[in-house]
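Hi all, posting the design record for the shared folder.

TITLE: backbone redesign
STEP: 1 of 1
STRUCTURE INPUT:
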């Protein structure tokens, strides 16, 4: 009886290992869902850092076909995107992000406090009329992962 239990245990263990390896192989072969990420930016001194992170993210996954990215800007960081005073390099990067399909959302509350309209911002921005933090929460409820570099 003792030998039969040992043999049965060995067969069970081998079956479990085989099943686990098959499940692992199946999950590796199956295409993964497109990741959705929202970047939160409100610090003026982090604008270039966050834009660099977004570019690294795009490069790391093989381009915009492999990830959906949104950028929500509010607070002092929005000043960097005023078209009247923008750095040309920053303007170029935002243009590329817009063409890549990245959602660029400006907090409506911040726009009011800075007395800027959507047309005063770089092309490609949309207004988050109910606020930047509300837009972030909406995106998170849609399955977006939250990143605040």
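Okay, here is what came back for every position:
SEQUENCE:
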């Amino acid at each position: 009886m003792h030998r039969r239990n040992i043999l049965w245990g060995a067969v069970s263990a081998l079956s479990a290992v085989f099943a686990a390896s098959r499940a692992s192989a199946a999950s590796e072969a199956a295409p993964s869902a497109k990741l959705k990420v929202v970047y939160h930016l409100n610090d003026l001194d982090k604008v270039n850092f966050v834009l660099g992170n977004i570019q690294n993210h795009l490069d790391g996954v093989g381009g915009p076909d492999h990830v959906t990215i949104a950028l929500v800007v509010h607070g002092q960081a929005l000043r960097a995107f005023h078209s009247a005073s923008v750095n040309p390099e920053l303007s170029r990067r935002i243009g590329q992000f817009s063409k890549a399909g990245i959602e660029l959302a400006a907090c409506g509350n911040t726009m009011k406090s800075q007395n800027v309209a959507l047309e005063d911002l770089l092309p490609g921005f949309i207004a988050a009329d109910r606020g930047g933090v509300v837009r972030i929460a909406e995106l998170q409820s849609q399955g977006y992962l939250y990143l605040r570099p």
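COMMENT: The two ends are 62 Å apart (CA to CA).
Let me know if anyone wants the other runs.
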